[in-house]
TrEMBL record:
The lineage of its organism: Bacteria, Pseudomonadati, Pseudomonadota, Gammaproteobacteria, Vibrionales. InterPro entries: Cro/C1-type_HTH (IPR001387), Lambda_DNA-bd_dom_sf (IPR010982). SMART domains: HTH_XRE. Residues 6-61 form the HTH cro/C1-type domain. It holds the Pfam family HTH_26. It comes from Photobacterium proteolyticum. This is Transcriptional regulator. Coiled coil: none annotated. GO terms for molecular function: DNA binding.
């Protein structure tokens, strides 16, 4: 299973979804789905923008975890 750490990262940095959407140009709905881990497909460009904006690597944003 793939786990997204966006909510944790944004929480640690006290970032709001609206701010990230405005600063990255990524649709707010897209960020919300990534944040809530309900997204079924994510454009590589969106992942790239998030990683660049947050100054992180893809492996910090997403990780593979064992199913529970």
């Amino acid at each position: 299973m793939i786990k997204c750490n966006l909510s944790r990262i944004m929480g640690e940095r006290r970032l709001k979804i609206a701010d990230v959407a405005r600063d990255t140009g990524i649709n707010r709905g897209t960020i919300t789905r990534i944040y809530n881990e309900t997204a079924t497909r994510i454009e590589i460009e969106a992942i790239d923008k998030l990683c660049e904006y947050l100054d992180i690597e893809v492996g910090e944003l997403y990780e593979k975890v064992q199913k529970k």
